[in-house]
Amino acid sequence: MKVLVANRGEIACRIFKTLRQEGMRSVAIYAADEKQAEHVFMADEALALAGERPYLDATQILKLALEHQVEAIHPGYGYLSENADFADACKKSGIQFIGPDGQAMRLLGDKSKARALAQSLDIPVIPGAEACQNVEQAQELAQSLTYPLLLKAAAGGGGKGMRLVDDASTLSQSFAAAQHEARNAFGDDQILLEKWIHPARHIEVQILSDGDNVITLGERECSLQRRYQKIVEESPAPGADDDLRSQLYAAAKKIIKAADYKNAGTVEFLVGPEGTFYFLEVNTRLQVEHPVSEFCFGVDLVAWQLAIAQGEKINIAPTSRGHALEVRLNAEAPYEGFLPQSGDLAVLEWPQHPFVRIDTGMREGNHIGSQYDPLLAKMIAWGETRTQATQRLIAALKDTTILGVQTNQTFLLQILEEQFFANGETFTTTIENLDWHPPAGDENILAQVGTHHYSHAQKSTQKTTPEPFSHLKGFRLGA
Fold first, then answer.
1. Poorest-confidence range of 118-132, 319-333, 418-432?
2. Which long-range contacts (CB under 8 A, 24 or more apart) does 125-128 make?
3. Residue 308 near residue 263, CB atoms below 8 Å
4. Mean per-residue pLDDT for 411-432?
């Protein structure tokens, strides 16, 4: 089967690895400024895109797929991954969409519709959470609730279009900002207003469904966030006991079956201070943090996505073993409001540690710009225990060298070495409630880098192009 990945960066690279292992031909797409991107080189074929927002151009992508005899399209996450019209257009064109069909996506991908479905199944939902088209509707609904309240986009996730409203005086301004951000991110400015649960844990359930069989592959806790963007994800969730897990799994299976959902998906919940859980949403795609579940259950979720799309039935009942943690290594300034950073990756060296996995779409020499997500890599570690997994992840982060662009590497190490993390005291507001400062003398890992790395970084900024054999010492052709 010939599969086009309608995405870029680390998720495109990750999918290409499975396609190669499955013996399937792969097709990459790339914007004009990403001709030298890593995902372009990993695919069997690479097709150029035109326009200012090409990865969102469903018409252009589908046209290229048809011209190059593509049989299936995998959307990855973000961009067109939760676009029901794109899924339907693929099917109409005779191309298999690797994900749920448009009908299931519309039912579960829209937060207000998914909430209504959950309520009909007696699954607890957060008070409020009704769709508002304008600020007047939001103000009317707010009168029946107590502040603080949360605004969030009905048509998407990832923290886009979300605002915390402390009191009535800021509702109008926050609503306008959330609506504007939602419109730009998802093309839909419908906003939900709901009661803010605090303190809370964010726990999600990974599912696989073939339409008849639905299985859960454990839960992931993703509570450590900043601006509603996840920073650390782990499984099993330290904030869950066996009773809560069984309730979450049952609720997740119930809503997936009711929607006649097929493929991989994630059902997200918020767990309140009394252990009460509330349904949040269903992500009708592969999650950024899916490697955590893969490590614990020994499965390849992308391979199962491909299999289910081809009509195969789920014939596995894997069990979880050990503990897995993931951190998102971003090009950002964590001690300066997490501002995205740009620059050239002069030096990029990943550790080669056992039980550590690095998913990245970057390589040394790449330019990090401001037009894309600042994610450089996901680093995942597994251990027999949570403590062991944490220590392995810390060691891997310390042995990572990145020069040329500022990252959150030191900040991630701080989190993993904090006592609250060791105790499993992780809540959605934990990161924002603490006062973070860079360690004394820290120069964002420059002090850890040897002189040969510094010399290499200096050379990499020169405009001259080295000869191809200039660094091959002791090498002879024909020897």
1. 118-132
2. 125/278, 125/279, 126/194, 126/195, 126/197, 126/270, 126/278, 126/279, 126/280, 127/194, 127/195, 128/192, 128/193, 128/194, 128/195
3. yes
4. 96
pLDDT surpassing 70 at residue 441: no
Helices within 199-300 (DSSP H only): 242-258, 290-297
- Per-domain residue ranges for the chain? 2-98, 127-195, 201-433
Q: What is the mean pLDDT of residues 316-343?
A: 96
pTM of the model: 0.86
Reference 342, options 399, 264, 405, 388; nearest CA is: 405
Greatest alpha-carbon pair distance for the chain in Å reads 82
The dihedral built from the CA positions of residue 154, 143, 134 and 121, taken in this order, carries a sign that is positive
Cα gap 295→326, rounded to integer Å: 10
Return contacts of 44-53, CB within 8 angstroms, 24+ apart. Answer: 47/4
What's 56's DSSP letter? G
Structure tokens belonging to residue 336: 């300066």
CATH of domain 2-98: 3.40.50.20
Peptide bond into 351 cis (omega under 30): no
pLDDT of residue 158: 64
pLDDT on residue 479: 35
Per-residue pLDDT tens over the stretch 140-186: 989 988 899 999 888 766 677 889 999 999 999 999 999 999 888 77
Looking at residues 271-291, what average pLDDT do you find? Answer: 95
Is-contact 382 355, C-beta < 8 A? yes
The CATH code of domain 127-195 reads 3.30.1490.20
Do residues 164 and 150 touch, judged by C-beta distance below 8 A? yes
Before 466, cis peptide (omega within 30)?
no
Q: Are 290 and 220 in contact (CB under 8 A)?
A: no
Give the pLDDT of residue 462.
43
CATH number of the structural domain 201-433 = 3.30.470.20
Give the per-residue pLDDT at 460.
Answer: 42
